[in-house]
Automatic annotation (TrEMBL):
InterPro entries: NHR-like_dom_sf, Nuclear_hormone_rcpt_NR1, Znf_hrmn_rcpt, Znf_NHR/GATA
SUPFAM superfamilies: Glucocorticoid receptor-like (DNA-binding domain), Nuclear receptor ligand-binding domain
Record's protein name: Nuclear receptor domain-containing protein
Keywords: DNA-binding, Membrane, Metal-binding, Nucleus, Receptor, Transcription, Transcription regulation, Transmembrane, Transmembrane helix, Zinc, Zinc-finger
Domain of life of the source: Eukaryota
Organism: Rotaria sordida
């Protein structure tokens, strides 16, 4: 027997199928699946318009009386009349991407997907930490949302073995001004002092996830929302102590003090830069371009 949930899914699936089949290409009358260049059109007419709309039209001529009927059966017989009908129904040639724009769009798409995978990989790392699993699920989500954008650069450094990622540099340089980009790049480069001791940055990734000071929310506001606030503080203190002990193993006491001061200072600098970058992104980039997880992380929702 089909459950009510399965029945709802079946009905929704059938409705979507019917909705798609009801669309009709305004150029040839064939089945269409949505809007292309601002008009409902089939895949064939979409591809045709992309290939021909930017061509110099006087070179095209109709062999008959320039009024050919365009149907699914006849659409390949007369390029002139088919293109004329595309323009008659107001398909927009300015929406056609150039080869360079297509290349950039593909790079953007790959970058956003890659960037999302980086965030997801780091989230999976946190979810495997016993201390992180001990806290309330709502608190886990809130800490990730508030802190991960300030920690992701450490993840990049570790993932890329302390080598700057050229793709990230390319897109950061497009989103933000050169001064801000140079400051962020300088911070990334400064962590090369731990290139022989990557465990330092791994401990930092964990310790700083349990702190509310990195939050994009005011400290008092985040504190009110946290359920296991005291447990989170205990975990933070545990990993900060672990970091301090490890620094004392690899350095003498003076250098260990300087190292932990350096880490805190660089994170405070990066925190300010992240706030500034967030403001720039909100002003220059459509938030709908981001994956829902990225929108949440960047507080765009």
């Amino acid at each position: 027997m089909v459950s009510s949930t399965e029945m709802i899914n079946i009905i929704e699936g059938e409705y979507e199928m019917e909705s798609i089949e009801m669309l009709e290409c305004r150029v040839c009358g064939g089945p269409a699946h949505g809007y292309n260049f601002d008009q409902i059109s089939c895949d064939s007419c979409k591809a045709f318009f992309r290939r021909n709309a930017l061509r110099y039209r006087p070179k095209l001529k109709c062999r008959y009386n320039s009024s050919c009927e365009i149907t699914v059966e006849t659409r390949r017989l007369c390029t002139y009349c088919r293109l004329k009908k595309c323009f008659d129904i107001k398909m927009r040639k300015e929406w056609i991407r150039t080869e360079e724009e297509c290349r950039i769009f593909k790079m953007n798409k790959n970058f956003y997907f890659s960037n999302f995978k980086f965030y997801d990989c780091l989230i999976q790392f946190y979810k495997k930490i016993p201390h992180f699993k001990q806290i309330n699920l709502e608190d886990q989500i809130l800490l990730i949302k508030c802190n991960i954008s300030h920690l992701i650069h450490i993840h990049y450094i570790l993932k890329d073995n302390f080598i700057e990622n050229s793709n990230i540099d390319l897109y950061l340089n497009k989103w933000i001004n050169s001064n801000l980009y140079q400051q962020m790049s300088k911070i990334h480069y400064s962590f090369n002092c731990f290139i022989q001791y990557p465990i330092v940055l791994i401990i930092v990734l964990v310790a700083f996830m349990f702190i509310i000071n990195l939050s994009r929310l005011p400290d008092y506001q985040l504190s009110l929302q946290l359920i296991d606030r005291h447990l989170i503080s205990e975990h933070h203190n545990f990993f900060i102590t672990l970091l301090w002990k490890y620094l004392n193993v690899i350095y003498d006491k003076k250098d260990a003090i300087q190292a932990i001061e350096f880490i805190v200072f660089q994170f405070l600098r990066y925190q300010l830069l992240i706030y500034e970058m967030g403001s720039i992104i909100l002003n220059q980039i459509n938030p709908d371009q981001f994956h829902p997880l990225m929108k949440s992380v960047l507080c765009l929702t």
